Amino acid sequence: MLIKDRIKDAAGILTPSERKLAAAILSDYPYAGLVSIQDLAKHAEVSPPSISRFVTKIGLAGYQEFQRDLIAELKEGQRSPVDLHMENRPIEGGFLSDFIQRTTRQMAVSSAAITEDQFARICTLLATPKSEVHVIGGRVSDSIAFLLSFHLRQMRQGVYHLPANNEAWPEYLLRMKQGDLLFVVDFRRYQPNLLGLCQTAHDKGAKIILMTDKWLSPIAKYAAEVLPVPIESGTLWDTYAPALAVIEALVTKIAEDNFDQTRARIKAWDALRLTDQDVPS
Amino acid sequence: MLIKDRIKDAAGILTPSERKLAAAILSDYPYAGLVSIQDLAKHAEVSPPSISRFVTKIGLAGYQEFQRDLIAELKEGQRSPVDLHMENRPIEGGFLSDFIQRTTRQMAVSSAAITEDQFARICTLLATPKSEVHVIGGRVSDSIAFLLSFHLRQMRQGVYHLPANNEAWPEYLLRMKQGDLLFVVDFRRYQPNLLGLCQTAHDKGAKIILMTDKWLSPIAKYAAEVLPVPIESGTLWDTYAPALAVIEALVTKIAEDNFDQTRARIKAWDALRLTDQDVPS
DNA sequence: TATTGACTGAAAAATTATTTCCAATCATGC
DNA sequence: GCATGATTGGAAATAATTTTTCAGTCAATA
């Protein structure tokens, strides 16, 4: 039996620190287990005795047998890609693996719905230095939008994240000029105030890039580019993981295309951040 | 340098038994080297001292370093049966689909590293009405953490999202009581101030649930539960999509388990929200 | 054939890793 | 609240592994 499975089987009877240990081992399986008991102890923040007890608990004679087995698995595993492949489809179907699988499927959908062409076009837009970029999302999706503006800010200047409170919007709208960009994330339960914002921005000549779901937010009307992403998870709630993946893809592509600039900027950034570091440990 | 190459480079100055040894190691590389010096000695038909001398000769400090290096090589090399596979054909599907596929792969890893058991346990903890839940994340990951607190707030009372500014933390810490929960998301570039927060919370008797990457944030020391999620995207930047998926899975599970309560709460919530809606369209 | 020097492995020593024991702590049930 | 039992990590004991020492062997050479 695989060590991994032994751990999962024993999951029910593990003590708190043993669970920490299990997490540490599984998080970089099997390599995390291929160090001395002391190093593993330090890494997992538990004591060596706890590890010793743990390996006994999962039915092994001792730490050494544990390691020998891990190495044997590694050796085996590399030989039979078939087995590995089987592992990728856990039919056992716990809630988590089930959910993840669904999300995974949705992610595939998103890459199908967005053409590489459009993707490249949007990257180019967002990377254009002379266009300032304004970013905002809906009540929930703003946190996704935040990741875009955060990373974008590391790569270029002129990136602004609009606050949720529309009282402050005029300040940003006044600054917007012809050719600037407004990146909006708006998923169902579309917010009327975002629509108003986009209308105004559009009137001012800003290009709007909209990330939305398949029902298409009314903002689509003003958008120069619409990035459709699937948000149905097959459950009662929506999933934003595909949306996040697309945003991360954008950010990564832009960063790679402008690598030197980005690196320089991050370096300068970090240098400044150090000066007001909170609590040096 | 790879051990293999070190051996080949040294081939000229090897003694007869060292050559036997080299052959034994290379014949089942790198697994043959991953046993005790005595087993390897027996297998290669030489004495342990010869092995010791050998590893020194090829420029390593000792047998242990030799093994550590072999494992590191293995990890590096196998790090990406997937990644490498993709790197070979990055153009095929285009940047986006390539990126999405990688992310997808990572998501599968996360469901392998988190046991269903642990998942269920954490859901139970977060759903316990009498424990208040405090949520916070790192500079970037806080936006992921936000989605947890946001949705959790829809399902139960006593959910607080700590502000990024640590000036305000004491207020929350004062409120924390024995048995309360602190859910922390902390990915690499771990923030010292979060560690301090967790230490204090832990001292106050709060249970800490930590979502982190495989390098394990130092907060693991105080954590009752550690949720490891993969964040490597195979590019220069990390991806939080798997983390988000896990959080969404948590939220969904909790909502489904407490469906009536959640529905009633959302209904009441929406009723209140309508009264101060910003701009009716 | 004797001498030299390199090579080797047995045994001892040193080091390192692992396990056991135990006291302190923590949580739990009464 | 108090007692009980489980859990935990430090320290000691144990075990294992690795390295060093050293004497014997062998081959090459004079």
Automatic annotation (TrEMBL), chains A, B:
Q: Which UniProt keywords apply?
A: DNA-binding, Transcription, Transcription regulation
Keyword Transcription regulation listed? The answer is: yes
Query: Per its UniProt record, what Pfam families does this chain match?
Result: HTH_6, SIS
Question: What's the superkingdom here?
Answer: Bacteria
**Does the entry feature the keyword Kinase, yes or no?**
no
Matching entries from PANTHER family are given as: GLUCOKINASE, RPIR-FAMILY TRANSCRIPTIONAL REGULATOR
Query: What's the name of the protein?
Result: DNA-binding transcriptional regulator HexR
Native organism taxonomy: Bacteria, Pseudomonadati, Pseudomonadota, Alphaproteobacteria, Rhodobacterales
